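The material for today's practical consists of a large collection of protein records. Read left to right, the backbone structure tokens trace the chain's path through space. An example says more than a description, so a record of this kind follows:
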Amino acid sequence: MTKLTETQTIILSAGAQRPENIALPLPKGLAGAAAKMAVSKMIEHGWLQEVDANLRRNEPLWRETGDGHGTTLVVTDAGLLAIGIEPVVVKTVVAIRKHAAEMPAPSLPAAIQPKLRTGTKQATLISMLRAPDGATIEEIMTATGWQSHTVRGAMAGALKKKLGLEVSSEKDDARGRVYRLPAA
């Protein structure tokens, strides 16, 4: 295997993972003269090739050639071999991805909604938040016996993350911050 610098390995590896083996964007921090020098060396070795950029597909530009045209950088078969990847494998993966993108998405069964048990503190919390007036943290603390941090955690974790419910809040001059759930 060819001896590559760390920068060359990063550029080639990233390009091998992108559609059409496009080597751009270059790694963060590689710009200006350093980028030009690294890319020039890689083109000399035959690992990268400058090709016309397809602006309709928003391919990234390496340099502009004028008249609204530009070039992009593509990892060549020699570049793939330099990092130990067989070009045939990459072409096969690209073909599989393209085929998968053209196929209709498989229909998945509807997500199973968790069943809410009645008589639990979580059920009490949900019913209080679904009431037309909503509920404040203090009101929920009184009804459940929880501390304020537990109430906030239950709303953020159990209701929002696990059950996917959208808890809204608004400031009420008389009551303070009031939390609500949309009616079921």
